Amino acid sequence: MSQNTNNYDKNLKLMIISAVVLFILFFYTMYKSSNAIQGSSYYIGLFFLFLLMGAAFFLRIYKEKIKKYLPGNSFEEQLTQQKQKQTSINISTNEQQNIDAVHSNITFNDVAGIDLIKQELQEIVDFLNKPKKYLEFGVKLPKGVLLVGPPGVGKTLIAKAVAGEAQVPFFYQSGASFVHIYVGMGAKRVRELFAKAKAHAPSIVFIDEIDAIGKERSGKSNDEREATLNELLTQMDGFEDDNGVIVIAATNKIEILDEALLRAGRFDRRVFIGLPNIQDRTKILELYLKNKTYNFDLKRLANETSGFNSAALSTLINEALLNMIKRDGNILEQTDIDVAKNKIEFGKKDKLLLSQKQKEILAIYQASKSFITKCPIALFDEGIKKSDLTYASKQDLLDIIKKYLSGSVGVEVIKNEPYAMFESDLKKADEIANDMVEKYKMGRDKDSLIDEVRAQLKLELSSNIDEIIRLKDIMLRDEVVL
């Protein structure tokens, strides 16, 4: 009830009480008075008293009808209507956000170019299909699998394929759906999600863009996002080893995730999905062109689309087909592909639309890095594999700097001049050198440390130019050095 209504009822009660008190006082005065009451004033007062009491009772009985004519009632009605509207919106939103299981009809046959990832995830599928085979030997599969990779590489599609292969219910939620402005709503939603997943076990819970709720906690606040993350950590700890529920999450920002989320027993298995190489792109294009007639060199297209992710390839083929239909054709031609390329832009232009010369420079950069790190590296990989050293020596830190600088020094050695590329690697090397000087007191200044590492790299790479060129040729051919 509004403030106006409360004031109205209060005033009405005061009027009735006042009338009753006056009536009692009037008769008490008459009873005690010894003088005869003469004149018309007595009767006028009596009439006024009865009129006052009658008006009070009338207002009391017909107050609902009278309220319609009072000023300010329109505001009350608008407020009531707005509350009803907001309630209906909240009910509608809750209905839309119901957590329901779906059955995926996507299988590994519908996902191309991820052969190694399929092999790694196949045991998850086998566990969901035949859990007793593992449990009788006491084998415990990961409770959580974290898919890490740049946007558009098919992380969500891969999770659906796992559910489709296993033929189990699939619960999809985005990280943003857990973020609410109301305290406790995100945590409540997490509990509901896991409760339903357990009720439908064996099942898969997939949380897309988990970094929306899984960012590292600051410890200085207790906001809704951190409460939701705490609930997620608790729910994953509460999983029994044989409950048949596996959590799969996807992110392209693993570096900002909370450490508690990545520890053993939660998301303890990480699957890194990179941009497809030339062989992968060929398989992806073949999948998208299945049952379609085309007249162009597929291998050439795969070579020209260096750096395209699977989503970009899908869009490219779709735009080409639209152009084919527009020109009333029934065979996909190279002209359609060219039109599609010119019509749309894919991600970072400086990386995806490389000339042959630029591609060669990038191949030298990555080949040099592969030679120094002794690790598999793809053409469009950024950074190096993180070191798990807890107590690093001075030489350990210098070796890490060496890995970050190896690409730029390699290009300088082969091309006889420095090139501006991969600023992130240079920045990381600079940060480590600065920490060595400022935090650990391992040198006089960071520039001298950087110069020392660069001199060692130039000497080592200059002595192995033939090997660098061999790795570069492999990188240009396969777009990966294993």
Keyphrases for this structure?
Rossmann fold, 482 residues, 8% strand, 4 domains, six-stranded mixed beta sheet, two-stranded parallel ribbon, Helicase, Ruva Protein, domain 3, alpha/beta, elongated
Explain how this protein is built.
Residues 91-96 and 347-352 have low confidence and may be disordered. This protein has helices at residues 3-32, 41-61, 63-67, 73-96, 115-129, 131-135, 155-166, 185-199, 211-214, 224-237, 259-262, 278-288, 298-304, 310-326, 334-343, 349-352, 356-373, 394-415, 423-438, 446-462, 465-478, and strands spanning 102-103, 144-148, 169-174, 203-208, 245-251, 269-272, 294-295, 332-333, 377-378, 480-481. The chain has 482 residues and is α/β, with parallel strands linked by helices. The strands form 3 sheets. It has a 6-stranded mixed sheet, sandwiched between helices. A two-stranded parallel sheet has the order 7-8. It is elongated. The two termini are 73 Å apart. The longest helix has 30 residues, at 3-32. The protein folds into 4 domains: 3-95; 102-272, 3-Layer(aba) Sandwich (Rossmann fold); 278-352, Helicase, Ruva Protein, domain 3; 356-481, Methane Monooxygenase Hydroxylase, Chain G, domain 1 (Up-down Bundle), CATH 1.20.58. The chain contains 21 helices and 10 strands. Helix 8 links the parallel strand 3 and strand 4. 29% of the residues are buried.
